[in-house]
């Protein structure tokens, strides 16, 4: 698959002078010194990306959930189809979307270590010191805070919030879907008993998004207020309780937030439809190019 | 206005054999022994109500908010226009909608005593022993629990929840919009300092909807689970915090609930659009006639 | 009412240095030499209009339907409430909305002469030589094509299309709701037999929007393509047929157009909800201030 | 894949007495004498289908488009996920959904012969004399008109309309998405020049849905009025023109029809979202079980 996409990329490069060029999703990768392995990511490139070679774009980091990897927003989130629709209707301008891989599959099926630093898995270091700088250098990305946003689902929703909480200087907007907040009510003994799952859960519990808000200093709260926050969670989602606690904490801390609780549960129909809210929301905060 | 509507009613009665008869909202009233005065209510009557004289309908009680009265769901909620749309599209069958008056305006502008018993204002007694039985006898209402639902906004959202909490044997469904829950966070010293407002607020605080759930016995919880609950509150509503607390309490008590937090604030645009969710939701629980 | 609104305007002028200032709708008027009478209009002024005295705004002309006048978009379209919602959610920037009066009520109930020149009613001359220039001079309006759009319902939907067809140099966008196209199928002998109605209908038939497209020269078609068109009509609207004919004509002429046929009929619930599509659509074409 | 699904079916059969049983989509097949080959179909079976062995269900026939087959509504339409959502929210009751295969791939890539009888491809005979009776006998389907509906996309949208036009005695409702109407404007010389495509196109042109309405006798029109029609087509769909012509023909013939023209083009994002309108629409016409 990856090879096939690389081929497409090559063909498209050659076709740079052709009249119409479609948007595409390419699988690329980074040789990570931090993680000690090659790490893939998917990247959405706008229509005419190869043609308008002087144009730079806003960027969205789009994080996957547990048991998924860098390919699922493409395969089941249909992010390219959604972008095609939103660009055509004028609700978003073209942007670049980076879909990283936070799974770890060393022969262990379903093992997924998540977005936080763990023993032998310094993912957060990888994200901020390797992935982000390298991608923003390689592709024509407007590498400034105003034009950089982050979103994610479930485990990636918690990653989204925690990253933006601790790096409000990097992200101007954060959109979390059906987030695993890392708060005690999220932890379910039965559901999370498997040792593979526990690695991710322990990482998340150490970055409890609710606790972070409750214990934030006035300076940190002030920084949090500089981010445009959006929380989206289905009314039948088993993670709703943690999300409600987060909303209450944000409310009490005086940090404004867009909120949607829509009809739905913890599934891809919800996340696919969330893109139609998320991407126009980001776009309204980006500069217009 | 009232006289005009009565006239319409009369004319329509005479026109009972005419071919097409429109739905209508009539202002009617009850001489209340409990309240010691005449009390108005608005009532929505289906198309052909006067013609199909053997047909009985499900009933919805629709409660107004503070500073409003029985006329506002008609004038600003546009409930008749909404019903026309929903019946035409087939999303609801015809039903009867009763809009009571919980305001008390004895020369005191803005005084509104609300849905709970107060000194000299036994409104709850009036509602259950006079209004409901008399209306359900006078009009062709299917006076059974399955086909009876209650909804309301703000002060009337709290009324909706509290009535259904204490009378699950009467209502099969309850839909609250932007509810004043009567829970401490709802109380705002500045906003609620005026003596007129205080009467309503004190009544509501004595019927704290959150506390009711938290302290409910297993038997009461079991009864609560027999009601179809729906909570709808805008993400910019100043009452959102109390609503979130209520949701958490229901979640922890194991009482299922439909939930929507939509884009919006404490205003009529929200409540008018809420009718398009509320009435089809009720209809799905009613019998089909 | 008008006096009351003028008073509000005065008070607000005095309160120019106060901290928070709400948006408002003011009724203003023009002494029209063309029409030989004083002609009212409603105008929506943004929050802080009186405070930010150097700020200029995009402008939308919003046309009423038959039997209405300049006040109905305010009273029943709830345009100010809609703007409050859309500005708060970030879907539109602040703009100025002008609601003219195309009714003529000289003791003749329901007489409404419409948007086209008639004997003794040179409304189109009034609109383009008096209303538009005077309003754009008096209020802080960005008086350029990019930031000027036009919308309207029913009779005003036809007015919208015909004005933008013949003045593509003035409007960058046109949004028609449930339009009376002035095309033969719109004309209904029974419905339009009354002499008062006939004045409007004759004017509309002389400006058949479908015929205009069918007979347009290549130069005119090229000009039409410079306008962003949007057509919105309910599937139960009695005017749908004329709207479908217009769509076919535009399609065959190669003039792109946004189209929505939503569930609904010829009523205010439709037009109120249309504003939530129309105003963000205009905003996406306006410059960002 | 098929073998895998059959295995699931077997396992589920064994698990008939287990407490919770999920809905599923099974690939089954028919040995068709008419077509002279084995023909596959996908079938959605409700939750607890194996458990509630006395329960019968309404049925929806869901037709695929050109270049697809019986698997695409499952793989890209996500029909099972949609059903899970709609059943949970109460917007539809459980039903059975049959997804036939109208492709023909005898070593010829992309050849798809469609829903009409062709030389060596008597698909319509297969559909009505083999598929429908056999499926409705094998599975617990309420085999009556009231509880039978048909829907489809593109080529399958045209199939939907034509089948329901000529068999109003079999289907109580028909929902067409982005339909290829078989009307001359649908035919595009360049797009349809390939000989494989031409087989399907010729079949469709011989069953021009617009012409059928225009030339219908009063008796046929009366029969058409007994069907609940719904037409859904994106405003950027290249087939919109044919759809508009069909709407005009239906309008002029006095056959009522639900209509939606939504933002969108000829793609799966549109058809997936269409299911959320289509299935509740069907459900409102079905009996309630």
Would you give an account of this structure?
- Four copies of one chain form a homotetramer.
- Helices cover 38% and strands 18% of the residues of chain A.
- The first copy, chain A, is built from ten helices and ten strands.
- An eight-stranded mixed beta sheet of chain A has the order 1-2-4-3-7-8-9-10, sandwiched between helices. The first copy, chain A, has a two-stranded antiparallel ribbon with strand order 5-6.
- In chain A, α3 (79-88) packs across α10 (268-285).
- Chain A is globular and about 55 Å long.
- Chain A starts with a helix and ends with a helix.
- Residues 5-18 of chain A have low confidence and may be disordered.
Search tags:
two-stranded antiparallel sheet; 289 residues; homotetramer; globular; alpha/beta
The biggest beta sheet of chain A reads:
8 strands, mixed
Output the strand order for the largest sheet of chain A. Answer: 1-2-4-3-7-8-9-10
Mean pLDDT of chain A: 91
What is the global morphology of chain A? Answer: globular
Going by helix content, strand content and strand pairing, the class of chain A is alpha/beta
Q: Can you count the beta strands of chain A?
A: 10
User: Strand share of the residues of chain A?
Assistant: 15-25%
Q: If interface size is counted as residues with C-beta under 8 Å from the partner's C-beta, which chains form the largest one?
A: A-B, 16 and 16 residues
Helix content of chain A: 25-40%
SSE string of chain A: HEEEHHEEEHEHEHHHEHEH
Radius of gyration of chain A: 18 Å
SS summary, helix count of chain A: 10
């Amino acid at each position: 698959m990856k090879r096939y996409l690389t081929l497409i990329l090559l063909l498209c490069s050659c076709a740079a002078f052709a009249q119409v060029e479609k948007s595409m999703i390419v699988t690329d990768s980074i040789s990570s010194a931090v993680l000690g392995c090659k790490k893939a990511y998917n990247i959405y490139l706008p229509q005419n990306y190869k043609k308008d070679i002087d144009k730079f774009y806003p960027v969205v980091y789009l994080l996957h959930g547990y048991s998924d990897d860098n390919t699922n927003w493409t395969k089941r989130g249909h992010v390219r189809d959604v972008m095609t629709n939103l660009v055509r209707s004028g609700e978003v301008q073209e942007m670049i979307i980076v879909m990283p891989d936070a799974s770890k599959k060393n022969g262990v099926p379903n093992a997924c270590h998540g977005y936080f630093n763990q023993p032998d898995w310094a993912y957060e270091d990888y994200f901020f010191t390797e992935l982000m700088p390298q991608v923003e250098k390689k592709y024509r990305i407007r590498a400034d805070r105003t034009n950089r946003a982050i979103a994610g689902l479930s485990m990636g929703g918690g990653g989204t919030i925690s990253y933006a909480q601790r790096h409000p200087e990097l992200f101007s907007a954060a959109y979390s879907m059906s987030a695993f907040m890392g708060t005690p009510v999220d932890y379910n003994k039965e559901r999370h008993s498997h040792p593979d799952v526990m690695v991710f859960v322990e990482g998340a519990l150490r970055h409890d998004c609710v606790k972070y808000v409750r214990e934030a200093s006035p300076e940190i709260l002030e920084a949090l207020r500089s981010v445009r926050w959006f929380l989206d969670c289905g009314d039948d989602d088993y993670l709703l309780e943690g999300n409600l606690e987060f909303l209450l904490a944000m409310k009490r801390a005086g940090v404004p937030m867009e909120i949607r609780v829509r009809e739905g549960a913890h599934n891809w129909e919800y996340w696919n439809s969330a893109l139609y809210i998320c991407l126009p929301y980001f776009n309204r905060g980006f500069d217009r190019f």
